[in-house]
Write a structure and sequence with these properties.
Blueprint lengths: L1 H22 L2 E7 L2 E7 L4 H19 L7 H7 L5 E2 L2 H16 L9 H6 L12 H9 L7 E3 L4 E3 L12 H15 L4 E6 L2 E6 L7 E6 L8 E7 L3 E6 L4 E4 L2 E4 L2 E2 L4 E2 L4 E8 L2 H25 L5 E6 L4 E4 L6 E3 L8 E4 L2
Parallel strand pairs: 17-19
Antiparallel strand pairs: 1-2, 2-6, 3-5, 4-5, 6-7, 7-10, 8-9, 9-18, 10-15, 11-12, 13-14, 15-16, 16-17
Helix pairs in contact: 2-7, 4-8, 7-8
The structure holds adenosine monophosphate and magnesium ion.
Length: 343
Amino acid sequence: MGRIRITGLFLALMLLLGGCVRTEPETRQFFAMDTIMNFTAYGAQAEEALAQAEDYIVNLEKHISVTRQNSDIAMLSRVSGDPVQVSEDTFALLTQALELCAATGGALDITAYPAVKAWGFTTGEYRVPDQGERNELVKLIDYTAVEMNEDSRGVTLPKGMAVDLGAVAKGWAGQRLHDLLVSQGVESAMLVLGGNVQTVGTKPDGSPWRVGIQDPDSETGAYLASVSVADQAVVTSGGYQRFFEENGETYWHIIDPDTAAPARSGVTSATIVGSDGGVCDGLSTALFILGAEESAALWRSGTLEFDYILVLEDGSIHITQGLENTFALMNGYQDRKVTVIAP
Ligand code: AMP
Ligand code: MG
């Protein structure tokens, strides 16, 4: 009798534990690409897939980091004038980045790097270049001058110019990781690469992932809204993410290629929701620069498939129609004016 009872109890316990094991997340946190990466995945394949995901990021960074001496991207600037043979990943990433530069009319411009550097955003030694210097910097920004040779994977950059993939790399990488996890059989994961969130499938219980949108004006990083997604990326760009202050002015890291100075479009944060992480990342930076009207025009043009959430200087919010049922204001933000942008 006693033995049967114990066995029964043991069985119940095993079932309970078994149930837990299936929904227990596998997580990884590490620092790469200048930010904290936080990966969560579910299911039997999760552990192995996340190990591969981390390896992939560590390896990718060696090729695309703008500050690593021998990366493809550092070589491009150093050897400017002659072709540099780059890795397959670098070539693919550059190709998508250049397409997005064109699609945004040059608001996104991966050759903005000399300006990013002149303002001190790469080193943290911040300074405000004078008008004369800015005029010279503007001349160095022109993504159409980047030459790509598909056969040799050779990339050529004119002398004096430099490339930085900081505006697109994390989103592009998130999308590659999404594809990697899916190919490994993972059906549920959330990958956070700094301000880039890439989801795989839904939550294990089948409900969508809820991703928080930060209040760009909050000093404590409060969330002002959330958006529910499945198998999509949610990417935010904002002046609050990296900035310095001098003589009462705030200067941030997103540069308007037309002025070589921090973009001032009236947008304080731009969030893109879409099915391609690379597109979302490139557009988050671009829409921050373009401002509300030009962002709506780009969305309406239908050249690219995405939805967006813009927070404006006066605190009001613009969302595109595709998010009408999945966007929600947080408690404490219910009185914000939300305008739905229609096609
Ligand atoms: P994100 O956080 O995706 O908006 O990217 C911002 C980063 O992209 C900056 O830290 C710069 O390294 C780089 N960047 C700044 N302005 C531009 C621009 N107009 N086009 C492309 N990259 C830029
Ligand atoms: Mg971006």
